[in-house]
Design brief:
Distance between the termini: 38 Å
CATH topology of the largest domain: Dihydrodipicolinate Reductase, domain 2
Helix content: 25-40%
Oligomer: single chain
Largest sheet: 7 strands, parallel
Shape: globular
Structural class: alpha/beta
Number of helices: 13
Length: about 375
């Protein structure tokens, strides 16, 4: 039994803490006392602790006695928090999905003798694991990930609820989208190149450009065509683009009756109520990962993995928390069992290349009723 600390008691952080508590001693931290009380009521086996991760001295003194750190803080705090964890010479699994390039900390992690597995969720996360595994099997020339988290009930006008912070969703809608075409990195506006696609169990969904490739752009430069697109119910994209094009996502302050107001802050406040997913509200996660390449006989192969997962009423755990969080707890257990011991910063595609690791993730998730179906 290991001693683990989870930084962040949000929807995903709490799910990870509860999952890990089945085998380990777990402490979960958050700035919000209300979130800590909620998690403690849900799972009495956990120890809770109020912590401000921006207080560097407090953060580093708090984590020093633990065997492993799980970092599930909001994206805007992620990079700096990860850097401070590495500075404290603690091994870490990170799912904060910050916009910065985690590989910039690789040399520092090696210097400190730290293993940091980052971006370890559903996407980025399991799509990277699949890509890393098949990169060893085939000479790949194509990778595509289509992914979305959606409410089961379509409420007009946005037909959407966010299983995480609306601010992070808006970041996805405003950050330039990078993809790789014929070996060149292409930068496009997000929410563009929308397509209607059919998915089993759901029907028609709309895909659009988003900046989801992240580390893969740097770790898999030999794959000439790579793209990640986000999935939503048809109609959502147009409404969001209207908000974006009319300035509702702007950070430039405007004067309203003598008050300086950020349109983005105002929009986030409105959308937080509109998009907030209830703790027990049914939702789903859908993902399709496609890789293409030639095998050792020079024959072209296409491999597709489909994921469809729903809210679990028995454990009252959202699908996004399950599919994201349990990928990270798989990585935690994998590391603690000594199946991956390399030092440095590792996005999932760099650990998924090992067959024992790939199989471990697939089996761990299957045990939790999360199924990636290969065709």
């Amino acid at each position: 039994m290991s001693n683990i600390i989870v930084l962040g008691a949000g929807m995903v952080g709490s799910a990870m803490a509860i999952d890990l508590s089945k085998k380990h001693k777990v402490t979960v931290t958050d700035l919000s006392e209300d979130r800590l009380k909620f998690v403690k009521n849900k799972c009495g086996d956990l120890t809770t602790l109020q912590l401000d991760v921006t207080d560097i001295a407090q953060l580093q003194s708090t984590i020093k006695s633990f065997d492993l750190v799980i970092c599930a803080v909001p994206g805007f705090l992620g990079f700096e928090t990860l850097r401070r964890i590495i500075e404290a010479e603690k091994n870490v699994i990170d799912i904060s999905f910050f916009p910065e390039n985690s590989l910039e900390l690789d040399a520092y992690a090696k210097e400190k003798g730290v293993t940091a597995i980052v971006d370890c969720g559903v996407a980025p996360g399991m799509d990277n694991i699949i890509l890393g595994y098949y990169n060893e099997k085939l000479k790949l020339n194509f990778f595509e990930c289509l992914v979305g988290g959606l409410p089961k009930v379509k409420k007009w006008p946005f037909l959407y609820k966010a299983p995480f912070s609306p601010m992070d969703v808006i970041e996805e809608y405003t950050r330039p989208a990078r993809y790789v075409e014929n070996g060149h990195v292409i930068v496009r506006e997000p929410l563009t190149d929308s397509e209607f696609l059919e998915f089993e169990h759901i029907g028609t969904l709309e895909s659009f450009n988003s900046d989801g490739l992240r580390s893969i752009i740097f770790t898999m430069p030999h794959i000439k065509n790579m793209k990640e697109k986000t999935l939503r119910y048809p109609g959502h994209v147009e409404y969001v683009r209207v908000l974006k094009e009319t300035g509702f996502f702007s950070t430039e302050k405007i004067n309203v009756k003598g008050q300086e107001v950020s349109p983005l802050d105002f929009t986030s406040k409105i959308l937080f109520k509109e998009w907030k997913l209830g703790e027990t509200e049914p939702e789903l996660t859908v993902m399709r990962v496609t890789v293409k390449g030639t095998n050792d006989k020079g024959v072209e192969e296409t491999v597709v993995y489909n994921l469809y997962d729903e809210y679990d009423p028995k454990t009252q755990t959202s699908s996004m928390a399950r599919t994201t969080g349990y990928t990270a707890t798989a990585a935690a257990n994998l590391f603690l069992e000594g199946l991956f011991t390399e030092k440095g910063v590792f996005p999932p595609e760099l650990i998924g290349k090992h067959e024992v690791v790939f199989n471990y993730f697939m089996n761990y998730l299957k045990e939790r009723n999360i199924h990636y179906v290969k065709s």
